[in-house]
Specification:
By secondary structure, this protein is mainly β. It has no helices and 9 strands. The chain has strands spanning 2-6, 17-21, 30-32, 39-43, 52-58, 63-69, 77-80, 87-95, 101-107. The chain has a 4-stranded antiparallel β-sheet, with no helix packed on it. The protein has a 3-stranded antiparallel β-sheet with strand order 3-4-7, with no helix packed on it.
């Protein structure tokens, strides 16, 4: 998600924009790149200090991986995708005090 704001009020400044990238809003994880090949990164900074359970499932809901994070930090987590076939997957984030968040992940083989 990107939050952008236009700089200036008159028409002469319309082409100048300041855009803030990769700032997660509370309760919103970021998954990148997407589509991905060998690895992807999961930014849990929106859940900083919270305990999280991360689940990776296929499109049929079969659990492929699950791991727990004690006190999520601001550094993204590396997800190894090298053993996964090309296709669609889901990354589910369960954090203390938040609704379950599900992110779609596409894995491509080049």
């Amino acid at each position: 998600p990107c939050n952008g704001s236009l700089v200036g009020e008159d028409d002469s400044d319309r082409d100048l924009a300041v855009v803030a990238h990769n700032h997660a809003t509370p309760g919103e994880a970021l998954l990148f790149p997407n589509p991905a090949a060998a690895e992807a990164w999961l930014d849990l900074s929106a859940y900083e200090g919270k305990n999280c359970i991360i689940r990776l499932t296929d499109v049929h809901g079969k659990l492929l991986r699950q791991f727990s994070i004690t006190e999520a930090g601001h550094e993204p987590l590396r997800l190894d995708l090298s053993v996964l076939a090309a296709g669609m997957y889901f990354v589910q984030v369960r954090a203390d005090g938040y609704a379950v968040e599900t992110l779609k992940l596409t894995v491509e083989r080049r």
